[in-house]
Write a structure and sequence with these properties.
The protein has helices at about 25-40, 95-105, 125-130, 175-180, 190-200, 230-245, 250-265, 265-280; strands spanning about 10-20, 50-55, 70, 85-90, 110-115, 120, 140-145, 170, 205-215. It is of the alpha/beta class. The protein folds into 2 domains: about 10-215, Spore Coat Polysaccharide Biosynthesis Protein SpsA, Chain A, CATH 3.90.550.60; about 220-313, no CATH class. The chain has a 9-stranded mixed sheet with strand order 3-4-2-1-5-8-7-9-6, with helices on both faces. Helix 6 (about 230-245) packs parallel to helix 8 (about 265-280). The relative contact order is 0.13.
């Protein structure tokens, strides 16, 4: 792959995975990302851009049947800036990780932008993400979410960070191939991006945050300053609190998290705890990696040092 200053700029694939996403929201998403791709092409950052949309919804959001990759007419959903677009209705809820992995199978581009459909790209988002790849040691570049910026810490000089949020990150295709994409056996929705990033770092790549690569992400806060999450998100994040430290050779933390779930007054937490206890008893837990604790970070219930909390008062 060549960098943004070389004679042949890289090709880019944009991937997003839907679940009951309103069609109007998809139009807004596609218009913004196409404009960001057009700007990146004018800047010489990329030579081409494709958009691949995977749909985990029970019924097709965009009206196409299940089966093969259906072309989307440029004047129907995707305006100028995108050379090729494809839509796949999976016919099953594969989760974010599974949906992206299914799309990865056909990837021929140099770079892939993994991004949520409930986002709106700033005009220079793609240009800035690709600029973050100028150093060949960088394998993953994370965008900056607004208006609720992720509080995860990063080095203000180099951008190095523990992991990149799957809401918006750019990865080299070579990284995806080397680590095998997301781990769908362990992570359905939450934790997949943390694990992807840590395995990329174990393979020798850097993961960096790019503050100038801005993306608007539709997140809301509760009255007590916590990011609002649905029941499904809470369930999967509870599961990850045990699975992630177990995988990264911190069984002590995993068992402590499991005990907390089992003792929780919350019925959902206890249900997840019972499921995971059964897995532990059956010997059905992941094989540990990162025995030297070279990349994994466990800070309270977070997976990196945080610069602030939205619940700070």
């Amino acid at each position: 792959m060549t960098g943004p200053g070389d004679a042949a700029p890289p090709s880019l694939r944009v991937q997003t995975v839907l679940y009951r996403t309103p069609a109007g929201a998809m139009t807004r998403f596609a218009e913004a990302v196409a404009a960001a791709c057009a700007g990146a092409r004018r800047a010489g950052a990329i030579r081409s851009a494709s958009l691949w949309i995977g749909d985990c919804s029970p019924e097709p959001v965009l009206g196409a049947p299940g089966g093969g990759a259906t072309p989307l007419p440029a004047d129907d959903l995707v305006p100028g800036g995108i050379d090729e677009s494809r839509y796949l209705h999976f016919g099953a809820n594969l989760g974010s990780a599974g949906g992206h992995n299914r799309l990865f199978r056909t990837m021929t581009e140099d770079l892939v932008l993994v991004v949520n459909p409930d986002t709106y790209a700033a005009p220079r988002m793609v240009t800035e993400l690709v600029a973050g790849m100028a150093d060949p040691t960088v394998g993953v570049v994370e965008g900056r979410q607004l208006p609720l910026e992720h509080p995860k810490a990063h080095d203000p000089r180099t951008g190095d960070t523990s992991w990149a949020s799957g809401s918006c990150f750019l990865a080299r295709a070579s990284v995806v191939r080397a680590i095998g994409g997301f781990d769908t056996d362990l992570f359905f929705l939450h934790g997949d991006d943390v694990d992807f990033s840590w395995r990329a770092r174990l393979a020798g790549w850097r993961v960096v945050h790019r503050p100038t690569a801005r993306v608007l992400h539709d997140k809301r806060l509760s009255e007590d300053g916590m990011i609002l999450a649905g029941e499904g998100e809470l369930e999967h994040s509870a599961r990850v609190r045990v699975l992630l430290p177990w995988r990264y050779d911190r069984r002590d933390l995993a068992l402590a998290a499991l005990a907390a779930l089992e003792a929780s007054p919350d019925a959902l937490s206890r249900r997840v705890g019972a499921e995971l206890r059964a897995r532990v008893d059956a010997g059905d837990m992941p094989e540990a990696i990162d025995h030297d604790h070279a990349v994994a970070q466990f800070v309270d219930q977070d997976y990196a040092d945080h610069r602030f909390s939205y619940a700070d008062v």
